[in-house]
């Protein structure tokens, strides 16, 4: 393909994308999209104003290591990590969460994760794209936390993958859904202490041979739905780093407010 042909293809793709966006905007004017959380017409953001007002989005300053919100901005000389991350760093290098996992966000996430409501995926991808913009700027690859095949069969989709795919596409990054696999069918993490969660997933993940070639020497942005104790993210990150990844960061829809305060 010569240079002129390449320019023509790029111009055609750009025009096609603009036409598609214009058509979508026109359709939204005629038939406004419905909110994901009600039958009420809403803006393209996807939630009713009441739902938006109740979501506790995490804004800077946040801890660079776990994504938890600092209570106040300490200024230019403040530490960029909370005391817990300084004392006991996670296995992943950095983390970002779009919002706090609480009564307002929990229902939306559970409807997506267990209610087969995949229309939430693009919305959550936009949330993470905003919260983890700095991590995306340094990432080479985006990978979702995998499900065990049996759980994938029962749930029918991997909630992390459905967010990671559009996130990678928008950011123009390599998407590697099959680099990491879950080789152990673990129990649910729900109800377990921090130590119990870590033991539950300690050897649950492995990197495929094909995945090893695609991640070697590259910085990975790992995508999951919720950060509770960080045990799953840590187990995945250690497997990826052991397989040759340069570093692993974590991005999630939501995180519990006090992950480090869960029972040890």
TrEMBL record:
Gene3D superfamilies, per the entry: 3.40.50.2020
UniProt cross-references to Pfam families, sorted A to Z: Pribosyltran
All residue ranges annotated as the Phosphoribosyltransferase domain in the record: 167-257
Similarity-based family: Belongs to the ComF/GntX family.
Stated name of the protein: ComF family protein
Protein source organism: Brevundimonas albigilva
Organism classification: Bacteria, Pseudomonadati, Pseudomonadota, Alphaproteobacteria, Caulobacterales
